[in-house]
Amino acid sequence: MAEATSTELGTGQAGALDLTPNPAFPTARLVERRDITEDLMVIKLEPSVQFNFKAGQYCTLGLGKIERAYSIISAPYEKYLEIFVELVPDGELTPRMWELKVGDCMSVRPRAKGIFTMDRKVHHHFMLSTVTGVAPSVSMVRQYLHDGAGENHVFYIMFGASYADEFTYDAEFNELAEKHPETVKFVSTVSRPTEARNAGWEGVTGRVNTIAEEYLERFNLPKDDTKIYACGHPGMIEDVKEKFVPRGWNFAEERFWKP
Question: What is the pLDDT of residues 137-195, one digit of tens each?
């Protein structure tokens, strides 16, 4: 996830990198770190106290006096908090997070927040995301399948990135789509197919917001039983919102801001 969401939770001058957790809150110990690219990593954290949340919600993490909100990749049934983080070079928190090693701790506010959660009143969930914005989709799908997937809900995951090596969770979704074809439909798309970094890419191309309408029609989704979820880059969200909300589609958004 980008360093901050629309909820700003702390400001200040970075100065010397303070890697100590805020003593006012519980801690979350880094138990696993996987570097994806130079500016993307996946971390797993073990909270020092029980941390309850709903799939799709976010947690508030901090180092020193700086805090930011991060959507949670992991599902509520999982032991660790899994977070997909994008480095913001001139940000206040992520450069500090890049210095963390396994065993180090961050602060975590004890309550999860957010209303970007699965709407069980509809059965078709059309989910648009860019890079780290995939977090709520992963959490919701994992939890739904863990619970037994017995309510005939279907998830249509549209996942966009500039480069194929940024997807990170595409292998998981491809596997789930193969194992649960009636429940999970997955489409990944790169927006810069001609660049050398995408050499060998043979999948869908184009920005996720530009192909969304095509796939919404291709899946033939019923307007009265479908919700569109958009999470990630504000520009992507604004574009799909302008396309679909005036036409009466049920729409939810979660914007990731880069300070």
Answer: 999 999 999 998 778 999 999 999 999 999 999 999 999 999 999 999 999 999 999 99
**Does residue 10 register a pLDDT over 70?**
no
Strand pairing partners for 58? 71, 113
Is the residue at 118 inside a domain?
no
Instruction: Please indicate, yes or no, whether residues 176 and 226 belong to a single structural domain of this protein.
Output: yes
On whether both 164 and 227 belong to a single domain, the answer is yes
Residue with tokens 């006012």: 24
Sign of CA dihedral 172, 177, 182, 187: positive
Residues 6+ apart with CB under 8 A from 240: 128, 209, 212, 228, 230, 251
What six digits make up the tokens of 258? 């880069």
Whole-number Å distance between alpha carbons of 94 and 56: 21
Domain identity same for 100 and 132: no
